Target: RNA polymerase sigma factor SigS
Amino acid sequence: MKNYAKSVGHDYEDIVSIGFIGLINAFDKFDGEQYDVRFSTYAVPLIWGEIQKSLRASGTGVRYSTGIKDIGWSIRKNELEDLSVDEIAAQLEVSRGRVVHAQDFLKHGIPGSLDQPIRAAEGESSIADLIGEPDDATGMFVQEFLDSLTERERMVAVGLMDGNSQTDIAPTLGVGKGQIYNMRKRIAEKYLEYSGMQESIQSPVKERTLEKEVKKVAKKNKPVSITEKAVNAMKEKGMSYKAIAKEFGVTLQTLTNRRQNWELERVREQHQEGKDMKKPLEKESVTAVVTAESSADLSQVITLENEIKGLKDVVDLKDRIIHEQRNVIVQLKVERDELANRSETIGGWQEEIKDERKLLAILLEREAVRIKNLLEVG
Model:
């Protein structure tokens, strides 16, 4: 990074400061739920973009048009570097002036490879051999900043760097998503203040990402999960629930809610085991669901079963009555049909049969109404 700063004509500290601005912008805009990537993956392009934007604004260096760059890449692709300007211009069918500009672009407009060999008195070396490895204190810088935060702010910062969303972090601290958002803003403000107080920054913001160092810090500062086993162990040591809640960095109410959930889950498991062990009855019976909030008394269960049994008896009785009434209706229909046949063959009885048919129709209508009422009551 120091060599890059020198190549673009800027001080190393200026480049790092610009990179920090990009880092703060990335931290403020990052939303793990929306982007579904790690913070470091999201932040690096923004940091590099901020540096490039600042360099463009300062107007450092010579700018080359796209056409000149294309000619330069064609020269390199076709291995024409060793030819004269006239020969290159003839082969690429461009003017001599454009070839000269393209050669200048290849010489000064693109960075050279670190593996590019150079001649030295001791033999042949590469640029990378002369540059060496810069000291990297990124991990120390990140750790120092995390140590300057409160316990809860550190848990939020590490959670965000570890790729978790605000929704994922909120239950761990026992707070709402809005409070996590406010803490995130405070962390960003503290980071601006912290970076501004640094007289000399030894560590550059690497182009390759801060992911390795972030992983180390996140692993070291990752919040401890609140488990029933851990709480019981602390309680056996004589700690109060208030002290245990403080140890985990949550409120006493949050810890109480966790304990209630554990108890409820245990009751449900015991009830499920009891249902699995119970043998099926020959007749259908009513089973009472016992919950942690209300436990049904055995006598109440028996009373309910008796009431339901009585209701089933009433329903069975109504079913038998309906069945008998349907048989009566069928019989009446048969008699009606017989009377109809007689009326067709015996003309003298037509009036009598007509009256009987009216009577049967009335009876059928009454029976239908009666059955309908019974069905509605059932």
